[in-house]
Amino acid sequence: MERKITVTAVLLGMTAIILGAFGAHALKKHLTVEELVTFETGVKYQMYHALFLLFLGLTTLVTEKSKKTIFQLVLFGVIFFSGSIYLLATKTITGIDFKPLGIVTPIGGTLLILGWAVLLWQILKDKR
């Protein structure tokens, strides 16, 4: 499980850097300042959670079962939260109104919060 989590963390971190550079350079000419800030929010949260997963993959403070649960919550949280933000921020370029996907963003945020909460619970109940 640690390898899967760590590889996912690296891939999320790498794509966050690519998307951040893409936003700062290629999208800068096509999006409004507000849309760029929104896009950047997705990138930041993706990177934060890439680092979170990197920690999760390397820590011994959490059981394997909890690692799997946290991993799934964070992975789907990033996909829903950051993914929906990327789509919503670039609708002027794509011409597709992703507004109905707006409900996915808070669901993703809730999954991210739950991932952190499970980690907190596991650390607090550890009696070492």
UniProtKB/TrEMBL annotation:
The keyword Transmembrane applies. It is found in: Membrane. InterPro entries: DUF423 (IPR006696). Keywords: Membrane, Transmembrane, Transmembrane helix. Its main location: membrane. The chain crosses the membrane at residues 7-27, 47-63, 70-89, 101-124. It is a multi-pass membrane protein. GO terms for cellular component: plasma membrane. Pfam families: DUF423. Belongs to the UPF0382 family. This is DUF423 domain-containing protein. It comes from Flavobacterium rivulicola.
